[in-house]
Amino acid sequence: MVFGAPEAVLMDLPQLTEDQPAHRPLIAAHAVPWPGEMAVFRSPSTDGFEVLTTFGSRARIGALVSDFYAGPTSRFDFGNALVVELLTGTLESVTDLTLFGGANALAIESAPSVWEIVQAGAAELLAPGRYRLTRLLRGQRGTEDAMGNPAPAGARVVVLDDSLASLPIAEADLGIPWNWRIGPASRPVSDETYVAQAFTPEGIGLRPFSVAHVEQPWRTPRAPGDLTIRWTRRSRALAADSWGGLEVPLAEELEAYEVEILDGATVKRVLSTATANVVYNAAAQTADWGAPLGLGDTLDIRIYQLSALVGRGLPKTVTLIL
């Protein structure tokens, strides 16, 4: 049988299932005809490729038909429609309960190797392979920072289901600019049916999510010039979606944060803390601004939760009004 080179997509995504180690990237592939089994080879150079894994499922891969604009998170996005065209496979509407259980999840490549995870409750068939998806949940699994404005027409789309294969790399392999070759497992790696790609796994699944609910700072009578800034911790742990817990699981070795005090693009000061709050005292304010901040002043800050494995997580940038 004659095979062509597959359409292959290597993705660094947040952890999607409990049985998928958080640091491992995913691969999706499509080919017609499907060879039955694909092989994934890698090498740190341009030769000496060694097989890493094989997989046998064809993924639902496609592209945006039109620009896809930014929208709200933590609630339904009713203002945008996601119009996609798939190379193969179908999509269908699901109930809200099924949606909240993780159904109809798609990865949208808003910029090269930057993926927003979107879920769609309603799917309307417009033409063979073309769907208009609405009742959207945006920025899922901490990917709100990956939202394009817009993600352009033609951007790659991958349906996130069991057809994707987890690449069994070690944590020590993260950050290495590997060369990859993907093709029919029945053919040698040198065959023309293999597609070559460069891809550096970064361990996105290990990266802490951005914090939430940053409160306006307050002062205590005991230290009237000091500002206390508070926020709510989020967790990348899949169990964090439970409604029964009082607080989300930590998912990191230790709880730690860094808070940058900003003056435009300049970082004036970095405050470190092991709790979901920090004190910006009057002496530090005077050193940074010439005097303690007063009523009506604004303060730009950026908060990071820290990981022992990958360092800073996703930032949360806010302007506080004193």
Automatic annotation (TrEMBL):
Domain of life assignment: Bacteria
Domain Rcc01698-like C-terminal span(s) in chain numbering: 59-158
InterPro entries associated with the record: Rcc01698_C
A Pfam family assignment: Rcc01698_C
The protein, known as: Rcc01698-like C-terminal domain-containing protein
Species per Swiss-Prot/TrEMBL record: Methylobrevis pamukkalensis
